[in-house]
């Protein structure tokens, strides 16, 4: 019995946590410390906080991966959820390992906007598109994150003659089209942008840079 107990403890999943970007929410965990852990199978359940019964996630029942997509199961974004994982190896099952409470609306990370840059004489015109959620409208298009949050855009310009890391904030607000004027011809400029949610005091990573020479 003791050996079984040791095996149970050694395969028990560690560090079970939700990670979420634009409401694409996945449950992640690390394997236990058993040496033969690569043959371990994992089983995932989830529930809404306050419910008594756990639901099996069929696609993540007896898997070898250390990640499980729960985007569809956590689509009521203001509800708090839990996930849990157990492991099985050589006929022995571990106890369940529980995640922290996860509320998508509060905790999802927001992605950067999609940025397009066009230039006209001494100006750059920056077009910004909100990141999309995985959830779809009736007609099939993905719902933008602006439906769920009051988003602001921050637009930064990098003058390539100067230091690469020298980003200057040139615009902050809700406009989807931003014009940056009075730039120097023949100079290479790059634009990066961020999305921010002032209410939650959170902002995205920088978008990939879009560069152009006037």
UniProtKB/TrEMBL annotation:
Keywords of the record: Disulfide bond, Receptor, Repeat, Secreted, Signal
A Pfam family recorded for this sequence: Interfer-bind
Domain of life (superkingdom): Eukaryota
SUPFAM superfamilies referenced in this protein's UniProt entry, alphabetically: Fibronectin type III
UniProt subcellular location: Secreted
Domain annotation Fibronectin type-III: ranges: 6-96
Residues annotated as domain Interferon/interleukin receptor: 108-212
GO molecular function list: cytokine receptor activity
InterPro entries: FN3_dom, FN3_sf, Ig-like_fold, Interferon/interleukin_rcp_dom, Type-II_Cytokine-TF_Rcpt
A Gene Ontology term for the protein's cellular component: extracellular region
Coarse class of the protein's main subcellular location: secreted
Gene3D superfamilies membership: Immunoglobulins (2.60.40.10)
Stated role: Receptor for IL22. Binds to IL22, prevents interaction with the functional IL-22R complex and blocks the activity of IL22 (in vitro). May play an important role as an IL22 antagonist in the regulation of inflammatory responses.
Similarity field: Belongs to the type II cytokine receptor family.
Record's protein name: Interleukin-22 receptor subunit alpha-2
Origin species: Pachyramphus minor
Gene that encodes it: Il22ra2
């Amino acid at each position: 019995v003791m050996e079984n107990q040791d095996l149970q403890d050694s395969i028990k999943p560690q560090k079970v946590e939700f990670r979420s970007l634009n409401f694409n929410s996945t449950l992640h965990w690390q394997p236990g410390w058993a040496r033969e852990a690569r043959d371990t199978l994992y089983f995932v359940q989830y529930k809404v906080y306050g419910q008594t019964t756990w639901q099996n996630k069929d696609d993540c029942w007896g898997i070898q991966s250390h990640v499980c997509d729960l985007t569809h199961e956590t689509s009521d974004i203001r509800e708090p959820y839990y996930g849990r994982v157990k492991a099985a190896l050589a006929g022995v099952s571990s106890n369940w390992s529980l995640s922290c409470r996860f509320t998508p609306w509060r905790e999802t990370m927001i992605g950067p906007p999609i940025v397009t840059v066009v230039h006209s004489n001494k100006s750059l015109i920056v077009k910004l598109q909100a990141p999309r959620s995985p959830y779809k409208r009736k007609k099939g298009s993905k719902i933008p994150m602006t439906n769920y949050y009051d988003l602001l855009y921050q637009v930064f310009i990098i003058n390539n003659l100067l230091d690469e890391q020298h980003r200057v904030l040139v615009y902050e607000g809700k406009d989807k089209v931003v014009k940056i004027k009075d730039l120097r011809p023949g100079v290479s400029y790059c634009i990066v942008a961020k999305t921010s949610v002032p209410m939650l005091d959170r902002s995205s990573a920088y978008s990939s840079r879009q560069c152009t020479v006037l």
